[in-house]
Amino acid sequence: MRLSDHDPLHVLLELDRGTEPLGRIREKVDAYASAIPRSELADLDPLVLFAEPSPRRAAGVSTALASHDSDGERSPFRVIVWSDGDQERTSTLHQVLAVRDAPS
Predict the structure, then answer these.
(1) Residue 92's pLDDT is what?
(2) Handedness of CA 83, 87, 90, 94 (dihedral sign)
(3) Which end is more exposed in the chain, N or C (fewer Cβ atoms within 10 Å of the end residue's Cβ)?
(4) pLDDT band per the 50, 70, 90 thresholds, residue 59
(5) How many CB atoms lie within 10 A of CB 45?
(6) 100 φ, ψ to 5°?
(7) Element containing residue 50 per DSSP (H, E)
(8) CA proximity to 102, closest of 76, 82, 83, 84
(9) Which of 103, 29, 26 lies closest to 72 in space, CA to CA?
């Protein structure tokens, strides 16, 4: 994705509907962490974005991501809430840019 006033953004999106157990999310994180460095994406520094349907689910996924060992490097994994019903949200694109730049 190319945006004015920003570096190019490479995103792998996991749109979660909350149907998989958190153990499966941990498996996906491990698979991404293993595959990305060996793939053509390695030099692109992709952001793996887990978009969650609720704040509660986002908290569970965040906990699952926190257990991932990134060997002291910045983690490529981030979590956002894509629908929480009651709160007015900023655009998803602004959320993606904010989480990309946030500390892991």
Answers:
(1) 59
(2) negative
(3) N
(4) very high
(5) 14
(6) -60, -40
(7) strand 47-52
(8) 76
(9) 103
Quote the CA–CA distance of 79 and 28 in Å, as a whole number.
14
Burial 5-29 (b: 16+ CB within 10 A, else e): eeeebeeeebebeeeeeeeebbebb
Q: How far is CA 9 from CA 85, 89, 97, in A?
A: 27, 21, 8
Task: Measure the CA–CA gap between 30 and 7, rounded to whole angstroms.
Answer: 27
Of 5, 4, 10, which is closest to residue 100 (Cα–Cα)? 10
pLDDT tens digits for 17-27?
889 999 999 89
